[in-house]
Amino acid sequence: MLFSFLLSDKLSAQRSIRLYNKGLKFAYQGDYKRAIHFFDKAIGSDTSLYEAWYNRALCKSRGREFETAILDYSRCISINPGFSIAYNNRGSDNNDLGNFEAALSDYTMAIRLDSTYSKAYYNRSIVWYELEDVQRSLFDLTRAIELKPDYTAAIQKKEELLGILWAMRDGKLTFTDR
User: Fold this and answer.
1) DSSP label at residue 115
2) Could you tell me the end-to-end alpha-carbon distance of the chain, in angstroms, rounded to an integer?
3) Is the separation of the CB atoms in 82 and 109 below 8 Å?
4) What is the pLDDT of residue 114?
5) Where are the alpha helices (DSSP H) in the chain?
6) Model pTM?
7) What does the pLDDT look like over 74-100, one tens digit per residue?
8) Proportion of the chain above pLDDT 70, given as a percent
9) Contact, 173 vs 167, CB < 8 A?
10) Cα 142 vs. chain centroid, distance in angstroms?
11) What is the DSSP string of 62-110?
């Protein structure tokens, strides 16, 4: 009896991986609706497959279904709490929804899990910028560039922010004018 149970588990795992791989194929092709369909089936076969939760969330994010993507990222994180990329991506969806405090929390957790995660520093700097905390925004942009010296988006955003600060110093601009 134990052997049949183990064999059943192994077949179920193989099935979920096959379905997951089909989902990946469609996701890579940009067919997010079909990808989600196969990730749904993979999750139905194995609810502990955090990669399927993550990739389904990513597809939903690409389709601008931020609320349900956040739920999937949360489930992924509950299965694999050390997955910094899921925190970063959930932060991005929270940011897109205007949930700035939740976004800051997610980016900060991603950084705690991986202190070399330049994209999380960059993303957190964007939220600080939206919240008009220039000092923290500049700190995170500087850290992102230190970690990845060729990070073009971070370099450009830092130059833009410094330009705003110079204009404010000279009385030519207020932060709300930006």
Assistant:
1) T
2) 69
3) no
4) 98
5) 2-28, 32-45, 50-62, 66-79, 84-96, 100-113, 118-130, 134-147, 152-169
6) 0.87
7) 999 999 999 999 999 999 999 999 999
8) 88
9) yes
10) 20
11) HTT-HHHHHHHHHHHHHH-TT-HHHHHHHHHHHHHTT-HHHHHHHHHHH
